[in-house]
Specification:
By secondary structure, the protein is an alpha+beta fold. The chain is built from six helices and 22 strands.
Length: 425
């Protein structure tokens, strides 16, 4: 074979090898591109949806059955516990055992007509709980334990206590102003009790006077139930300001003190009636409205509705309680410091001779017995046997805040006073 022919054969063989190599290379590149695209597409898909199937509707779970049925009712007049609970499906034997077991904690024979009670039964009608409010602080609960016994427990109410401001301007009386402010009459009585030794809430109060106070209000299940303590109060009466702050001494006993630490409570209240109108004052010569003769009137007459409670102005001993011709039903007390007080024309007497009373104890009720033209109280005071004007006498104060506690009192006072001053009308 000639040389040119051999060169042509080598060229053809080289070309064939190059073409085969190109084809293989192109096939490899195509495979790599295909696999890479697959990965990109797969990674771009949301996780878990590659083989996802349409969701199958699932029925909602059934609502749980109630654990028990609540029954709220009130005791009717002359109704017993047995009468009430048998109406709701309990047997007489069950009620008997419940009352017998509860007697060690509370006697259910003392239930009050009109009082609410709560009864809880299982869906099958079996007894679960019984709740009865004994007073504003606690309630009786009776439950059935695993041995089928009735177990009584006395529990305290869990009040939500909030300190809230109360304020008002007096147009007629403190009592009416408090009601107009949306508060209850008991708060007016509590406020009058704090300042009762310094202010006569009829004679010393006039239109335009005002008050501010911080009081604890107690809520149960979001509803107002009653008042707690008044923490601080301020009253402006006839352009004079009176302030009081509740402070507990080292023994934990609370009392009210003025800004200077002096006790607001004194041995004697300024009036035996919290809200009353003076109709006749102390006089050495007064025309008697019935006898029509001029003679001394050595006391103060307070007009008030019949049945209004009369309180002892100070602690003492009852030295007389009965009826006389002119004074009608009357009570006479002996106090420390050689003082005596007398309360006349009562409709009813609430104490007996020899009994000891504390300041604020109800000793009788306003009436019109004896020589009286209408319901009123004739109140008299003696010191060492000498009659004195009840509206003019100045009684000594109780002990002030102890020196050892004054710094602690001052911190409390300043904080409460700042909050009082923020209350605007």
């Amino acid at each position: 074979m000639s040389l040119p022919d051999r060169l042509k054969l080598k060229a053809l063989a080289a070309f064939s090898r190059y073409r085969l190599f190109s084809v293989l290379l192109l096939a490899l590149v195509a495979a790599v591109l295909s696999f890479g695209g697959y990965l990109i597409i797969e990674r771009a898909r949301p996780l878990g949806l590659a083989n996802a199937k349409p969701p199958v509707p699932v029925a909602p779970p059934p609502l749980p059955k109630p654990q028990w049925t609540e029954i709220v009712d009130t005791f009717k007049a002359k109704q017993t516990v047995t009468d009430a609970l048998v109406r709701h499906g309990l047997s007489s034997q069950e009620v008997y055992e419940m009352v017998a077991n509860a007697r060690y904690v509370y006697n259910l024979a003392k239930i009050r007509a009109g009082q609410y009670y709560w009864l809880y039964l299982t869906p099958e009608g079996q007894f679960r709980y019984f709740n009865y409010p004994v007073d504003e602080e606690k309630y009786l609960t009776i439950y059935r334990d695993q041995e089928n016994r009735f177990v009584p427990v006395m529990k305290p109410f869990r009040y939500d206590v909030r300190v809230e401001p109360v304020f008002g301007v007096i147009e007629d009386s403190l009592f009416m102003s408090m009601l107009d402010a949306g508060e209850q009459e008991g708060l007016a009585l509590e406020l009058a009790g704090i300042f009762g030794c310094d202010i006569d809430f009829y004679t010393d109060i006039q239109k335009g006077d005002s008050y501010r106070l911080l009081v604890e209000k107690r809520y149960l299940d979001g509803k107002f139930r009653n008042y707690g303590a008044i923490l601080a109060a301020s009253i402006t009466a006839q352009n004079r300001q009176f302030s009081g702050f509740r402070f507990a001494d080292e023994n934990g006993k609370p009392a009210y003190y003025g800004s200077d630490g002096k006790a607001l409570k004194k041995p004697f209240l300024k009036s035996p009636l919290k809200f009353a109108r003076i109709t006749s004052r102390f006089s050495r010569a007064r025309l008697h409205p019935i006898l029509k003769i001029v003679r001394p009137h050595l006391g103060v007459d307070y007009a008030a509705p019949a049945g209004t409670p009369v309180q002892a102005v100070g602690a003492g001993v009852v030295i007389a309680a009965g009826r006389t011709a002119g004074s009608g039903r009357m009570v006479r007390l002996r106090h420390a410091g050689n003082y005596e007080t007398m309360y006349m024309h009562l409709s009813r007497i609430a104490v007996r001779p020899g009994a000891r009373v504390t300041q604020g104890t109800v000793i009788g009720y306003v009436g019109a017995t004896g020589l009286a033209t209408g319901p009123h109280l004739d109140f008299r005071v003696w010191q060492r046997g000498k009659p004195i004007n009840p509206t003019k006498v100045i009684f000594p104060p109780a002990p002030p805040v102890p020196a050892s506690s004054f710094a602690r009192f001052a911190v409390l006072r300043d904080g409460l006073r700042s909050r009082l001053e923020q209350i605007t009308y």
